[in-house]
Amino acid sequence: MNSPLSGWPVRLVAVLVALVAAGAAGCGAAIAPAADEASRLTLDDFRGGAAACYDRVRQPHTAVVDTHLHFRPFGGPAVPFEEVVDYLEATGVLFANVYGIGQMLPAASSCTYYLDCPGTPVIPTLRNDFVNAANYLTKTPPGMHLTLSMTFPDLAQPESVLEGIEILDTEYPGLFRWMGEVNLVKQAQFANDHEPVPAAAIAEWTPFMDLLRERNIPLAIHSDLGNDEEPTRYVPLMEEVLGLYPENAIVWVHMGLSRELTTMDAAQHVELLESLLERHPNLLLDISWRVLDDAYFSQPEARAAYIPLLNRYSDRILPGTDFLASRDKDLEVYRTELDITSRILGYLDDEAFRNIALGENYFRLLDLDFTAPRICPAAGAAQ
Q1: Which of 6, 168, 230, 313 has its CA 20 to 30 A from that of 58?
Q2: How far is Cα 80 from Cα 86, in angstroms, rounded to an integer?
């Protein structure tokens, strides 16, 4: 997708961007144009000692890491693994988590998406993790870094989680470096036999949480804050997890938001997140899913509340699209999701942009041998 500023002198573009940023009511940087092939990054740009810097005026605002990407759907045909990889290459994404979908529709179901089939149960299963692992071994291109994630766990049945890990260890030893997205409470699936995980079950997670901590494996949890009628109804469940397992790296996906919660006061949400981040040093937030932009980040007043939070805790934030690779999706859908979920990044300060969009947090969390490029001193971001 070509920028309307393509072909203009870089210096003139920089002036225009700076003027727009200055008029953005203190919200931060203007959105940078899409990258041309000459500005496209490669893995070599993330090797230690790379001389190149990232020019936020010339290069895009979109993240180079997608930490929340479902290579498999809930049901029906999937986009082939190699095609999803093509989407990443086409949009400049170099690092990604390979999520399956742990809660699948029955194999005999004709449904692709659980919302289209209320009354049909979605059942935790290892199926997608096996498919992803087999594809990962044979279809990961040399110019991309992918991380396999275990998505099978049923958090309400903690005794089954170690068993599943042992099965994956037997077939694919050492390949899985992430766990999630797994559901603590997901209201959207209430019509498909899902229920919130009881607090008593959370207390029984210790065996698998110990193993995750020993292996430095983060746990990415979907846990709805609440809904428009009761915005904080389910917060105690996440607080229970954080209180019982303070040494585990826990990623709260979508910052707790959902389609059931689109009218929460942004200042109230920010205050809640700040309190949790301050009390739980190993908590991280995932800002994936377009719902965040549709309902919150795209609104100037709400965005102004979130930007200081993301800047202040920029070493605790991870980007992602939440793209679901069902066969009714294509490259343009992925490109749109990446753009929408990355828009907020264009407003952040340089340190936050480097930590989040350029992947420094991701590399640090997984102890990967990559380093995000520094930001060019002449970048057009307002500080």
Answers
A1: 313
A2: 10
Contact 261, 227 (CB under 8 A): yes
Q: What is the pLDDT of residues 268-312, one digit of tens each?
A: 999 999 999 999 999 999 999 999 999 999 999 999 999 999 999
Q: Which of helix, strand or coil describes residue 296?
A: helix
Structural tokens at position 220: 């990415």
Threshold 0.90, pTM exceeds: no
Where do we find the tokens 């746990």?
219
**Taking all residues of the chain, what is their mean pLDDT, rounded to a whole number?**
88
Q: Does domain 58-366 have CATH number 1.50.10.20?
A: no
Taking the C-alpha atoms of residue 285 and residue 317, their distance in angstroms, rounded to an integer, is 5
pLDDT beyond 60 at 17: no
Residue 44, sorted as left (phi over 0), alpha (psi -120 to 50) or beta, turns out to be alpha
All structural domains of the chain with their residue ranges:
58-366
Question: How big is the chain by its Cα radius of gyration, in Å?
Answer: 20
Nearest in space to 362 (alpha carbons), one of 91, 69, 85, 67: 67
Most confident of 113-127, 177-191, 290-304, 365-379: 290-304
Range 111-115 average pLDDT: 67
Residue 49: band (very low, low, confident or very high) from pLDDT cuts 50, 70, 90: low
C-alpha separations of 149 from 75, 101, 212, 217 in Å: 19, 10, 12, 9
Bin 201: left if φ > 0, else alpha if -120 < ψ < 50, else beta: alpha
CB 94 within 8 A of CB 143: yes
Tokens of 88: 């990443």
* b/e code 42-63 from CB counts within 10 Å (16+ = b): eeebbeeebeebbbbbbbbbbb
